[in-house]
Amino acid sequence: MARHVPLYRALLELLRATSTCTTLVPLLLPLSGDPGQDEEDEDEEHSEGQTSVGMLLAKMKTCVDTYTNRLRSKKDKGKGVVKTDTSDPEPEGLTLLVPDIQRTAEIVYAATTSLRQANQERKLVECSRKVSSRPKPLYVLRSVEEKYVAAMKKLQFDTFEMVSEDDDGKVMFKVNYHYMSQVKNASDTNSAARSRRLAQEARLDIMKVLITGPADTPYANGCFEFDVYFPQDYPNSPPLVNLETTGGHSVRFNPNLYNDGKVCLSILNTWHGRPEEKWNPQTSSFLQVLVSVQSLILVAEPYFNEPGYERSRGTPSGTQSSREYDGNIRQASVKWAMLEQMRNPSPCFKETDVQGKITIFQPAHPEQLHSKMSGNKRNGGEEEERSAERNERADWGERTRSNPITLKGLHDQNIYNRNTYK
């Protein structure tokens, strides 16, 4: 953002001008996807998570408010010295941009609020005249998954009190965190570029992420927890990412996910790759890291992620090895990324309701368990597998009976962030 200040200021000026024109203010609100639906239906749909210019601008204002508060807090505490670079043009640009964002957000909010109130008053008058009712349009009959996404979208990014400081400034963690030692040993001297970059990404330096496995993969419906830490030289170096869902360091879920939690990706500089695949301080972002984990690691055929195994893809031996590998991954996903997450959910993600995430897709899970068991029977031990299957189904039934289906779950990209705050 700081590298495109003139562009952002021009857009903000356009939004302020739009807010002063009554006929254009509706463009700042969510747009209807169905021309035939009435405004009452529109408001119902908007409340379930449609994006609008006004909402995005409000989020941007929250971001810059967090940014300015953090810098002010550092300044007031007087702990450490923030390094500055006189040759860096970003601070001057942000000095101009931040108040522009704050002022524009207030103007747009006032204009859209006034329009909403006028629309509500008009609808009350119209509703009083209506006598007959009409059936709901088809778009209201959304699938369970669509309702699931809408209900949880507001929890996609949130904060949790993972760390605090005592009167002496000593850092204390309230949850288990892989990079605890780095945080405690980190110098109070911070890079101004790092602070600005973190603020612009609406993140703090300590984070937990929950990613659910995509459908039609051995990881489907599993909830995988990652610890993330932004090192002192960020963004010159990539964030540190560690997988916490490892079955007590007993399971290697992927050739790129070690049982000690190491995540191998070119963008994290933990795996060799072409220069354009590695972390770039100017263009790379944390969102790219999250998308890479889901799209490059949690894939349908993880067996072929192993270097050299790609050559066996499509061959009888490669297909058989991949099936056996997938069977083991499915079993581990059910045990550690589903059942264990239900029994012992992370405190940071209790509000996302991991149990609700699983029970809403309850009809699919017994089939997933059966598929996993059937795949393993081909390798022998059928009686043992039948016994294991009965136990798994009994455990599953007991848990789902005590947890009714909810409309809570993860976002359509199945990624949830929890920042820390003090």
Content-based structural category: alpha+beta
Side by side, the strands of the main sheet go 1-7-4-5-6
What gyration radius follows from the Cα positions, in whole Å?
25 Å
Mean pLDDT figure: 75
CATH class of the largest domain: Alpha Beta
Helical content (DSSP H or I, runs of 4+): 40-55%
Report what the structure shows.
- The protein is built from twelve helices and seven strands.
- About 10% of the residues have low confidence.
- The protein has two domains: 140 residues, no CATH class; 262 residues, Ubiquitin Conjugating Enzyme.
- 27% of the residues are buried.
- The strands form two sheets. It has a five-stranded mixed sheet with strand order 1-7-4-5-6. Strands 2-3 form a two-stranded antiparallel sheet.
- Strand 2 and strand 3 form a beta hairpin.
- With 422 residues, it is an alpha+beta fold.
- GO terms for molecular function: cysteine-type endopeptidase inhibitor activity; transferase activity.
- This is Baculoviral IAP repeat-containing protein 6.
- InterPro entries: UBC, UBQ-conjugating_enzyme/RWD.
